[in-house]
Amino acid sequence: MFRPHHMLLVKLGGSVITDKMNYRVLREDVLDRLAGEIAGSGEPTVVVHGAGSFGHVIASKHGIQNGFRDTSQLMGAAQVMEDVRVLNLAVTSALVRSGLPAVSLPPSALARLSEGKLENLDVDAFRRYLELGIAPVTFGDVALDVRRGFGICSGDQLMEVLARELAPARIIFCSDVDGVYTCDPREDPSARMLEVVDRSALDALPRTQRCADVTGSIFGKIETMLRIAAHGGGSMVINGLVPGRLAAALKGEEVVGTRVVV
Ligand code: IP8
What we know:
This protein is α/β, with parallel strands linked by helices and 262 residues long. It contains ten helices and 14 strands.
């Protein structure tokens, strides 16, 4: 039975489940392990995943995030929708193989944007599948935009709306690093991980990071997490590449990572 206060909300970042450097390359071993950790929690869960190399390159090449301008974008939009569906099927299948009944709920069909902002999502469908004991799986996708024709609905926008509407007990973002750092740990060895980030800690971070994503940098992600926290949902960024960390975080154990609080 669906008990909202036990419900878990997990984002599998595109950088964790895909090889971000190579178009449409899945990290199958990582995905299978994370699916097992999610299935092992035994609690009702909504899974959101990013697009990684299945979405960002082609979306950016065709400017899908800026809306419909001309027909030359249409094949690009269709290609991105196809590619993220391929990724989504891999995620959903991995969950089902791990013993968790799961269903795909694609934003291209169930969401409406307005000027790039997620305004409308069929949250009732998520609730009803959860009540049945089937885990909804949604993802960064192309979606209809009532002002711009189409746009990009990111996994983080979905996290924000689902966190607000479903009030999960735990909200976990899986990244490919341990948490939020003072600067990019891959480029600067003096980078320090922050255990807690609030508004003032975010404002103190140097804004130097480059970003290839059409949906924004780590700063945009933290802004989203701060809005989630303002609605009463503390969330955490953890490293999904470390075996067992997601499983422990889902159980509410103390794990290495960054908590985002108001
Ligand atoms: O990876 C972006 O979603 P994200 C979706 O969650 C596309 O930022 C299609 C680029």
